[in-house]
Write a structure and sequence with these properties.
Residues about 1-10 and about 480-500 have low confidence and may be disordered. The chain folds into 2 domains: about 20-210 and about 265-475 and about 495-500, MFS general substrate transporter like domains (Growth Hormone, Chain: A, Up-down Bundle), CATH 1.20.1250.20; about 210-265. About 75% of the residues lie in helices and about 5% in strands. It is mostly helical.
Amino acid sequence: MSAANTPGLSAMTGPLRPVHRRLVLAICCLSVGVTGIDLSIVNVALPSVSRDLNASVSSLQWMVDAYSLVMACLLLLSGSMADRFGRKRIFQLGLSLFSLSSLLCALAPGVGWLTAFRGLQAVGGSMLNPVAMAIIVSVFTDRRERARAIGVWGSVIGITIAAGPVLGGLLVSGIGWRSVFWVNVPIGIAAILLTRRFVPESKAVRARAFDPPGQALIIVLCASIIAATIEGPRHGWADPWIVGLIVLAVLALIGILIVEPRRSEPLIDLRFFRSPPFSGANVISMVMSAGLGGFLFLSTLYLQDIRHFSPLHAGLMVIPLAVGQAVAANLSGRLLASQGARLPLTLGGALLAIGSFLLVPLTARTESVHLLAAYAVFGLGAGMVSPPVSHTAVTGLPPDQVGVAGALAAGARQFGASIGVAVTGSIVAGTGAGFIDSSHAAWAVVGGCGLVALALGVVSTSSWAKAAAVRNGRRLATAPIPESQGHPLPSRSADPSEARKE
């Protein structure tokens, strides 16, 4: 690949040198894999953090959600910055900030400091996921190769999230909970060096202008929803602060619907959500991550606090989930390339629901075989859904804005993870019953996420949805192209053949 512009996609910059595409893919997978591990590895450390830092369940929720919430709020901004200033540059900045903040988390003297450093860690993490996808898309220009590469990338994220509890169990049992943050530092340094040496620099041919009002509204919307969900059970849903947060979220959503369509270059171009496959992929990504986040949160508390398993034992119990996800992700990528997205999406949603509903009748003496089977089925579902969601989310937006496309998909995942932890945590912490009794409803909610993914998988891959996506692409291709700073925007066309494939 040369340094010449890739038509309609991005501009390669910097000195001419051979691009080792598989090595670039491996570097991107390594970099975003560490963020996936961090999202779940901390779950295993929660009981130890609670004892060591005297943290309540609400404090633990905030510690987990500070990471995914901040990341969800900043992903679109980071993707836009990467398209404008250079993807390699922003990627390296994100790795540096993520590694530094991981070091600070390991040294945190209290739960408040730990939560703050987790938020800082998420700032760096927000520069990794969407930018990695943009780098992959800019390097893999062939449509089929790109689909396979994105499938691998998406499956790595899911696998590392599932593998986090296993690694966390080993570290917490052997060294202590602070080690789950120490481990990020050497990996981050290695990724920085590899990125500097092998990843080519690229930018969008025409990056979007910054959209401060849109970014502010997104932050207000996400933060107010998560805060109300976590604090509602503790303060009461009629508390003026909680009601105020809910009203603020509604106003922010209305603001996005009013303000963004009126901007020449919005942070979120709402017209793309008129494509059912694109909208469905993002919602499926959100509910899948909500289910996975809630699943891991509940499992950790159950295995360690109710069954009194050690962190290592608890981590080993979740191995079937990681194995199932790895196996299903590989199979899903093959099904995606040969048959399209419908089969892996619907099968994955069904498995997510079955795995969760198997745990609804959970007791303090449920057989380990039952637990392992439920974890394996849920892992198969998560692995089956991830590749088609990642691929469809990227192909739903114009190719010259792949940074923003990746950010939307990653933002849906992170916001979903925040909601999953907030909702399930609020259910088990907000009732007068014990954990076991209240967890039944929480497991049912997680199962409901699987049913939603199943239904959306059917609808978003239907003939109606594909035809609507083609029509929307044609409207965008013939729409007047706004000008900004004297430069015309690239044509926002959709590839009907890809829409039919999906």
